[in-house]
Structure formats: structure tokens, C-alpha cells
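ingest -> validate -> predict -> emit
validate: passed (alphabet ok, no gaps, 292 aa)
predict: started
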Amino acid sequence: AVAGRGLRTYLDIDLQLMAERMMKDKVGAVVAIEPKTGGILAMASGPVFNPNDLTGPEKNKNYSRLILDVAGPLLNRAIQGRYEPGSTFKPLGGLIALDEGLISPSYGYPCFGRYTACGSGKPACTHSSAGHAANLRLAIANSCNSYFTQLYRMAVDNRKYGNVRDGYMKWKEYLNEFGLGTRLGVDLPSEDRGFIPDTSVYNKEYRGSWSSCTNLTLGIGQDKMGATPLQLANAMCIIANKGYYYTPHFVKKIDGETEEDTALLNRYRIKHEVLTHISDEAYSAVMDGMED
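emit:
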């Protein structure tokens, strides 16, 4: 036997063990990323399986059982699970509206428990008291559905783009820059790209006749939007870094690094400045709301 070279990762063993305990007997995933490096500190998916089941004379039988298990124990939900982001999306919507000049941090919306501007009274909010969305910071802290529904509609109905379809595609462009709807390139196989629909999806479904009221719950991370936990963690890294990220990765270094190793690892050492054009003031306003 010949010893291989050391492979060093960013994994924090205590954090990883805690993540695995959190996911015990649950369906879902946990991801923690160090924003300044893109290093993955912890990743856990549930439910899990015993790797020993895929060895020995029973491995084919066990694999067949696992592949048919509706709980999906073979699925790494952290990079393959596609979920509606829900309210975790709201900080991104706030940043888009700020960068487009549609609002200032002091912008408020009169929400009394429901969004009524499209006539349906949906979506509902968890708060109905006056003033809970009196500015961006409060709207994020209180997670006001009406506020961020309105920001979405303002973004896609922005007059400078001429029509809702072009406005929507500009909004989608922001989401792609935040890493949603695209593979990030993590150093694991089979990463899912998530899903951010383009206008063709709505054109087909509604025969070309749709408006910002049609898919208004995109503003609160719902409708047809789907993202992986890894993508959402990375989007938060972009906010923490005020506009840049490093591709999420496990491998920190390889002992005795060769030219071939360097070529492999360099892609994770590239600083991706995707949204640095958004002002520090905008990022700070969103961060304040998240902190609250």
C-alpha cells in the first residue's frame, strides 16, 4: 500500500456533526459557507443511508431498495434538492429594487395583512398591524409578503424596459447573477441548476397574455421558482461580501500541490464580482433588516 497525498478541506468537524444531528430523521439539507473564501464549512442532507449497504453480496438488492425509497436517501438535497426559496428570497428582491432606483431604504408600503393591488387579496401576511412595512428594514425584519410582492411588480413593470416581458427578463438576469437558476460549479458531481422560468414558460401557459399580477408570488420566492440550499447559501455570501463570491468548494489544498492540482483548484480561487455595482448603502440597508 502506498499512502496518498493529504487532501485538506474547509469542513469544520464540530459544525458538520451539529448539521448531521440537526438533520437526523428529517427531510432536507443544511449548508454553511465561509463567504470570504467560498469554503464549505458544513453540508448535510437527510435522510441518509449506510454506505456499508452498497458493499458485499447484498449491494444490488440494497441499491434497488434505496433507489425505490420515496424518501430519496440517495439524493444529496443540498445540491440536488430544488425548493421554493420562500421568504429567504426577500433580501434579493430588496436589492434589485434598490439597484434599479425603484425604491430607497425609506420606502414603505401600507400593508394591513393582505396584498390587494391585484384584486385577489393574495398573498396574505403574518402581520396586519400598521407600520410593519414602513421601510425596507422593517419589511425584511417582519418578512412582509405584500411589500416584496409590490417590489417584484415594480421591477417587472419598470417603464424603462417598455413592457412586462422585457422587465421580467431583466429581473431574471439579476437572479442569475445571484446564482439562482444556474449551476455554481461546486466540487461535487450532479449539482442541480434549480429553475428560474423565462418568459417562454408564461407565454406558453397563458397564451401570451400575462402580467405582473399573474406570477406575483415570485416576489416572495414562490410560483415556479426553485433553488438548491447551496444556491441560497451562496446568494447570502454575495450579500455578505457586497457583490462577489467564490465558487463554493470543499477542497482547501492538496499537499505537495502539482501543476495539475493547481489547474484543478484555480477555478475555486477566482473572485466572481457579479453584483458589485449595487451600492454599499443598499447592501447595508438589507443587512440591517436581516440582522433585525
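Residues 164-177 form the longest helix (14 residues).
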